[in-house]
Amino acid sequence: xxxMYNGNDQNGMGDSYQxxxxxxxxxxxxxxxxxxxxxxxxxxxxxxxxxLMIPCVNLVxxxxxxxSSKEKKxxxxxxxASLIFAAVILVLYIIIIAIFGAAFASAISGxxxx
Length: 114
Fold this sequence. Notes:
single chain; about 0% strand
């Protein structure tokens, strides 16, 4: 019975079952990433939000921050996502205005017969 648990059975196959398990447990050590970027500070976000409150300037600055190579990656990605979201909302608004405009035009032309 001890031979079965120790891998010394009569067939000599006890060690063959332990070999793959040991190979699976070995993994490579990875060096820590040292090229991490400094996060956007609280003050920088406050200034960003203040600039976004100014009409027309906010839209221009969103494009500048989204596509500038000087900006931090996290800030750039945030404004790219914001622009995509704004474009989707704009398309939905245009579709809704077209639907209601067609309904209103239909109602006006139908009222002319009365």
